[in-house]
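Blinded run. Sample ID left blank on purpose so nobody reads anything into the name before looking at the predicted structure. Input follows.
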Amino acid sequence: MSKILIAGCGDLGLELARRLTAQGHEVTGLRRSAQPMPAGVQTLIADVTRPDTLASIVHLRPEILVYCVAASEYSDEHYRLSYVEGLRNTLSALEGAPLQHVFFVSSTGVYGQEVEEWLDEDTPPIAKDFSGKRMLEAEALLAAYSSTILRFSGIYGPGRLRMIRQAQTPEQWPARNAWTNRIHRDDGAAFIAYLIQQRSHAVPERLYIVTDNQPLPVHDLLRWLADRQGIAYPAGATPPVQGNKKLSNARLLASGYQLIYPDYVSGYGALLAAMRP
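Blinded prediction complete.
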């Protein structure tokens, strides 16, 4: 079993902490506020953007770092502070720790290209906005470390119901019917936990796209969600599919991991069932 530090214990980090603790690992969760942690998880109150608060983490002597912070605001400055400077500060504070591997939760937003072809880990990322560029800047900090970059597509799950709510207001559906790629939060956390468990006999790949089996046009998803909720929407053909991209999860599947929710039907179906009175 390993000593694991999870930097950033929001929704994804908390679910990962629960799974790793259940596997018998010694887990410490770093977060900015003193909110409750899952049973068995040690709490460390610190802020990755403030190096002075990170002085004690080296004494935890973590063997694995999972960096899954979330920017508090969608702006270039907050992305720079949270992902680039925050990761830099955390790695610097862990100098002298017996760190064996770093898992960094990045984003498929680094792929700014809009093409018909499937994209995978061998596709060069072409970031076109600040968020993708900052993620690539942070990823580059790990070049000298034994590390795995996890580029997540759109995360959904308990508490992440944006598409379900959007389906309830057809008049606000986007005019452009672009491709959407998604991953359930439980699969995101379970896949990281799986890679950590596999380290004893298989070195993880340097990069994974973390997404489910079925990208689809966003209007197809919204219509399916509306139908399941009894929401009426204008009849007629859907807009032509334009924009975004389709992401391949072939490398994820080749790792041996089996998705809990392989597609939107199983994932959103479970969420809708849990919402029923």
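Unblinding after everyone has recorded impressions. Residues 3-159+182-214+246-267 form a domain with the Rossmann fold fold (CATH 3.40.50.720).
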